[in-house]
Write a structure and sequence with these properties.
The chain is α/β, with parallel strands linked by helices and 272 residues long. It folds into two domains: 136 residues; 105 residues, no CATH class. It contains eleven helices and five strands. A five-stranded parallel β-sheet has the order 2-3-1-4-5, sandwiched between helices. 31% of the residues are buried.
């Protein structure tokens, strides 16, 4: 029998999803990225018209029936957000957001870290390790197209290591547009879904207070510090490390304005 999770994360990657799961696991069953590759492959096939909408919904329900988790902190839930609201009407939802440009920079730094790690493993003398990384990169680059057709673990090479290249600028614009579109969906969803809670990443210290209001538990939520786990594995001293200022320098002004407008709308809806 399927149960409604108490809390479902509908945030983007790089917004404290692993921290949320780690924190909640101290007093309930929380998962992070459960069946991530299977679900995102199904989502991608659905977007390509190769997997019916109802089949995707059924697969998601089957996944949750299997896990029976109290907290689902996966970072792909936003792709299915409106369906999830219908499937689990008694759940609460959280959207943790960050400044658009810093999110784009963090996403690209993460994809670059995938490239470094798995390209090194692909030359490993252990054939199983090498094969595993080759398959993993193949999957992540298919998954990346859900965010942008230009996103790839090899985006630095494709851009000629130049943030002023047309390729890199298009990639940045794609990711900003993705952030804006999801932000607008969240703003619209909040109008009718009073179980959707919105919080800026900079105020993640408020999450224990929020969780205390959701859970019937004797756990002292504020006795344990809420962790942060969004530090990039790419050193900031590395020439390839991106930050919000670099993203701002190549992003179209109109998109930066639009993302700022959405950010302000989200801020007006944050947890009080």
């Amino acid at each position: 029998m399927i149960k409604d999770p108490i809390l479902i994360n509908v945030s983007l990657p790089k917004t404290s999803s692993s921290s949320l799961a780690d924190y909640c696991n101290q007093y309930c069953f929380a998962t992070h990225e459960a069946w991530h590759s299977d679900m995102t492959t199904a989502i991608l096939k659905n977007r390509l018209g190769e997997y019916p909408d109802q089949s995707l919904r059924n697969f998601y329900i089957f996944r949750n029936t299997f896990y029976q988790h109290d907290v689902d902190s996966s970072t792909f839930n936003h792709f299915l957000m409106e369906d999830i609201f219908t499937i689990f009407p008694n759940s609460s939802y959280i959207y943790i957001y960050r400044d658009c440009s810093s999110w784009v920079a963090s996403m690209l730094n993460m994809w670059h870290s995938f490239n470094i790690l798995h390209k090194k493993r692909m030359v490993d003398t252990d054939k199983n390790v090498s094969q595993s990384s080759s398959e993993w990169l193949d999957w992540i680059n298919k998954y990346s197209t859900l965010y942008s057709s230009n996103l790839s673990d090899d985006f630095w090479n494709l851009s000629g290591f130049n943030i002023q290249s047309l390729y890199f600028k298009k990639l940045v614009s794609d990711l900003i547009n993705f952030w804006i579109q999801l932000g607008n969906r969240i703003v619209n969803a909040k109008k009718t879904n009073h179980n959707l809670y919105i919080l800026p990443l900079a105020q993640s210290c408020q999450i224990p207070v929020f969780l205390k209001s959701l859970f019937d538990s004797d756990f002292d939520f504020q006795s344990v510090e809420y962790p942060t786990s969004n530090k990039s594995s790419i050193s900031k001293e590395n020439d390839m490390h991106l930050n919000a200022a670099l993203i701002d320098s190549v992003a179209p002004r109109i998109l930066l304005k639009d993302s700022s407008d959405v950010y302000n709308q989200l801020s007006s809806l944050k947890i009080q």
